[in-house]
Design goal:
The chain is mainly alpha-helical. The chain folds into two domains: 94 residues, no CATH class; 83 residues. 72% of the residues lie in helices and 2% in strands. A two-stranded antiparallel ribbon has the order 1-2. Strand 1 and strand 2 form a beta hairpin.
Amino acid sequence: MTKITFGRAVKSFFKGYFDFSGKTTRAGFWFAGLFLAIIFVPILLLFDMVEMILSQGIIIADDVLYNPFYYLLALGILAFSFPTLTMIRRRMADTGISIAWHNFILILIFLTLALTMIYGNQSSEIWQTFALFMAGFFLLVAIFIFSILPTGYFNNSEGNPEKADSEITKDKEEILNQISEWSVNKQGKVER
């Protein structure tokens, strides 16, 4: 298995722009997330700085559209949203979750967002803000859980728990055999 590096993960992120098939490892997912943070954090900081300047009246403009970083932020969101969705799908595939469960989770997320938009607009601004926050929170929690699960977590050796247990036992025995072959010399160094 090839070791995932930062550069390889970013290349895979862009290479899989429209690819919902395949898999993305944990390392690949987190390196791509780091890349997105490196791109968006400075843009967001500059956007907020310009917003503060505009709100102080130094430059007479109350509209966000006068902020040049607004367009850079919007362009970045448009450019990186779709590959991020495909990467999340590939990460879920790597954990072994079936396409049916994946679609079920996506439908729940979109229903939550849709209900938030429908009922949030009919009530107070506080409810709307709270509902959007909760929908976003649950979405991020679901994505975080799938991002930390190991490869093949839901595969369970093709749905056979007994086979999975025997494979785990075999792996443990191999590790114990390797450890028992090691010896420690008088200087405290491990030798084979």
